[in-house]
Amino acid sequence: MNQADAAQRLSELREQIRHHDYLYYVEARPEISDAEYDALMRELRELEAQFPELVSPDSPTQRVAGQPVETFRPVEHRVAMLSLDNATTPDQLREFEARIGRALPGARFTYVCEPKIDGLGVALLYEQGRFVRGATRGDGRVGEEITPNLKTIRSIPITLRDPLARARELEVRGEVFMPRADFEQLNRALGEAGEGTFANPRNAAAGAVRQKDPAVTARRPLDIFLYHVSAARELGFTTYWETLHALRESGFKTNPKTERCPTMDAVIDYCVRLEAERDALGYDADGAVIKVDSLEQQWRLGSTTHHPRWAIAFKFAARQATTVVQAMEVNVGKTGTLTPVAKLVPVPLAGVVISNVSLHNEDEIRRKDVRVGDTVLIERAGDVIPYVVQVVAAKRPPDSRPFVFPDRCPACGHPAARLPGEAYWRCLNTACPAQLKERLRHFGSRRAMDIEHLGEAVIEQLVDRKRVKDFADLYTLTVAEVAELERFAEKSAENLVTAIQASKTRGLARLLNALGIRMVGERVAALLAHQFGSMERLQQASLDELSDIRGIGPQIAQAVRKFFDDDTNTDVIRRLSEAGVDMTQPDFVAEGPRPLAGKTFVLTGTLASITREAARELTERLGGRVTSVVSKKTDYVVAGEAPGSKVDDARRLGVTVLDEAAFLALVGRR
Ligand code: IVH
Fold this sequence. Notes:
By secondary structure, the protein is of the alpha+beta class. The chain contains 25 helices and 22 strands. The strands form five sheets. Strands 12, 13, 14, 15, 16, 17 and 18 form a seven-stranded antiparallel beta sheet that branches. A hairpin with a 2-residue loop joins strand 4 and strand 5. Helix 1 (3-26) runs antiparallel to helix 2 and helix 17 crosses helix 18. It is elongated, with a radius of gyration of 31 Å. The structure holds 2-(butylsulfanyl)adenosine (IVH). The site of 2-(butylsulfanyl)adenosine has 15 residues, from strand 3, strand 8 and strand 11.
């Protein structure tokens, strides 16, 4: 090949690779396989090796290039990178509208709303469509030059397409972030390699962006959303919305959750919806950003030294807080599991006050090295129970000592043990009163036998007085007996006894969950109940019969068999039955049709007429399988209200999306 031919082929290859990079990294809809892509890259590399004089800085091979640096060069931003004004309530958003209304009397405003990404602000400079410089925000006036690091981010285009390719000089701004799933994977890998982990995706992204060696940055899964074009009006745009379109067309990644809102009511609705969806976004967002759409209005409103007057951030409820560990205790679970708990100085977090946080097990405490007296960063995300993210090392008192896990049950004093291969210490005393109390509490809980008034104080007294030694004893309690307990009057005693009697008809699924069989929670209990229909049939099921059930592995089967092989357990069941506790499943259909056999479902969002759990039960009863991750093997994604990113995944992978009505029709409920 001569040089002219090589130049021609190089240019074709680069163009193709850029195109596929765009489809893959920006639009997430690749058109070729990884192998085909690799082949293009290989050809490009080989040809460039043959003709080194034809390597250009904007070649896709040059994304990871450049030597490690000692320090970053400071760059002065031509236009300061300002911060944002904040609102935390809808009223404050209305005040914002009133404020800009006063500044521009008679004006009507349209807004653009988008997620506020919890990442790092960066500015990218393009000259004649080529990426020439990238910088951090720094203090807003002066940032640091990190061009080689930013080049490694594949969703940042190195050369632009029209319309923005034509701009002589273009500065765009956006937020670099690390997707949550990638962050978790990275942390796992770092942990396994014995290296330090990051507290959150933001810190991980910040660390990656400020790496001295771009080769390290290249191995970190960074991504970016662009949200600002400096001097957009000079480029001929009249609205922000239009500018975003041009960004997208030119090859930049913009946030697909961006919406144009004609009124402040629509803005508020957007903020509420986005906050409800935040856990499904796939990346951390700490709020929404609301911007006046008209660039002329933006220009007339101007900025303070701190923030533009035409934009405001609506901050979501905070989910992280720091507080102090006052004590560390060990609780006894219903199967004797010892769970360490940190007692905290109470701290409000995302709408509730947190005063306890589970530390899970011995290894977890050791890994995070949590000690009494430590200041800890805690987080509570969505439905997730609060947890310790990390200890604030700088605030550790000098006299603190590592926590030593007790080798005796803190409740009964009996020896505890941690068996090989297990994460938990366990109290070995089957008669441990703390275990019994936990089992009774679980038995009466809302999703088990749902016994109202069976609170902790009653259980405590009944067990301590040895009046209740197992579940069956509950059903023999009389009003007179209960009335004698502390803090009980005739009326409340009657209420409790009535509630206990009422629990007899909860059905087999709830009863199985209530019994606290190892590895049998709500889901497995429902499976077993629907498979066998009665306690009698279940008790006779062999190990093979049990493990043949879809969703029940050999371990669960063994745990179930072991439970029923124990005479103490069968004795309790016999006495429960004699007391009149229903041992059958009311809606059991023996060997019903299984029209959904072999089909895999993912449920997402809120369904209006059926709970997520009931939808799962129904699907499984008809032979379908319910999983949580959308893949090519998924047959249907069932999307309720506010479904989040799983629907996007489904569309991308060509998986059928069903709305609620279509799902109900499929399972024969409509
Ligand atoms: S607009 C002049 N939009 O939040 C434009 N900022 O707290 C002002 N941020 O410095 C910024 N997501 O780094 C804008 N969708 C978004 C954003 C966003 C995150 C960051 C940005 C800014 C900081 C202010």
